[in-house]
From TrEMBL:
Residues 7-131, 152-269 form the VOC domain. SUPFAM superfamilies: Glyoxalase/Bleomycin resistance protein/Dihydroxybiphenyl dioxygenase. PROSITE patterns: VOC. PANTHER family: RING-CLEAVING DIOXYGENASE MHQE-RELATED. Keywords: Dioxygenase, Oxidoreductase. GO terms for molecular function: dioxygenase activity. It comes from the Bacteria. Pfam families: Glyoxalase. It comes from Sporosarcina soli. InterPro entries: Extradiol_RC_dioxygenase, Glyas_Bleomycin-R_OHBP_Dase, Glyas_Fos-R_dOase_dom, VOC_core. This is Ring-cleaving dioxygenase.
Length: 312
């Protein structure tokens, strides 16, 4: 039996000023800041995590905010669009909310679903789609209440420099099922009730350039540490050049760049975000991995001050 990921674990992107990032994803979209920490490979930069009330896999979008950094270009070799699932019947609320904050949007239809498309302040392409699947997000922030709150990811759209090879990786390495074709896109499904839909663009365009407003990588779910090691072997046996296991404190991670140049990560569901602070206090304080704790005073002095604030 082939291995099958249950879906998206998280998506990580590069953005600009961290306060602008927080104001949009918490203040406008109503997501919870579940963790503020630093980039483990570049501790002078924040790593901010947003998700549902419990910070569950499939709801987490993470950011490396680089104030005053150069703008990237969305294109081949990247996740092109990140799509969020909202409760059925809540689209009018979200359209009105986007209008309230003067956020330009367009309406479209894809694979029989109505989507609303817009960009965040730093250029990331986002969508909202109503989905019945997925548990209610019991987080309330500002005027965003659980009856309309974003549940988590609906999925993502991949732009590949070699779409046929990326298709092969999605099916034969990650275990996704081909679901439907529409125009230039093939839709694939995983088994989870959130983060389970991948649309792959089957024609190429301009090659992406990493920078502000682009997705750095997409991470897929592994059940636990044992399953994670099995994924590492499985990917290697299928021709992927996989990294060693990296301890990211809230999950273990391995990485490989698939043939279409998109950076894939496979991340463990546990231990999650409440193991170094309570679920009630997640995201309120800067949390550092053990290797950087000795530099806390210096980091707290150098990092840009941030706050989570209601914009309503």
């Amino acid at each position: 039996m082939k291995k099958q990921t249950t879906g998206i674990h998280h998506i990580t992107a590069i953005v600009g000023h961290p306060q602008e990032n927080i104001d949009f994803y918490a203040g406008v979209l109503g997501l919870r800041l579940v963790k503020q920490t630093v980039n483990f490979d570049d501790p002078g930069t924040y790593h901010l995590y947003f998700g549902d009330a419990g910070g569950h896999p499939g709801t987490i979008i993470t950011f490396f905010p680089w104030a005053n950094a150069y703008q990237g270009r969305i294109g081949d070799g990247q996740v092109g669009v990140t799509t969020y699932a909202i409760p059925e019947g809540s689209m009018d609320y979200w359209v009105n909310r986007l209008e309230k904050f003067d956020i330009a949007f367009t309406k479209a239809e894809r694979f029989g679903e109505n989507v609303v498309q817009f960009d965040d302040p730093h250029g990331l392409h986002l969508e909202l789609v109503e989905r019945a699947e997925g548990p209610t997000n019991h987080w309330t922030f500002g005027d965003v209440t659980p009856d309309v709150a974003i549940k988590g990811f609906a999925g993502a759209t991949l732009y590949s420099s070699k779409p046929e090879q990326t298709k092969n990786t999605l099916v034969n390495v990650m275990g996704l099922e081909e679901f439907a074709t529409e125009g230039d896109y093939i839709r694939f499904k995983a088994s989870a009730d959130i983060g389970n839909t991948i649309d792959l663009k089957m024609v190429t365009g301009t090659r992406g350039a990493m920078g502000v407003g682009t997705v750095h990588h997409i991470a897929w779910r592994a059940n636990d540490d044992q399953d994670h090691l099995e994924w590492q072997r499985h990917a290697q046996e299928n021709g992927q050049h996989v990294t060693e296991v990296k301890d990211r404190n809230y999950f273990n991670a391995i990485y490989f760049r698939e043939s279409g140049e998109i950076l894939f990560e496979i991340a463990t569901d546990p231990p999650g975000f409440a193991h170094d602070e309570s679920e009630e206090t997640m995201g309120k304080a800067l949390k550092l991995p053990a290797q950087y704790e000795q530099f806390r005073e210096k980091l707290e002095h150098s990092l840009i001050p941030i706050e989570v604030r209601s914009l309503d």
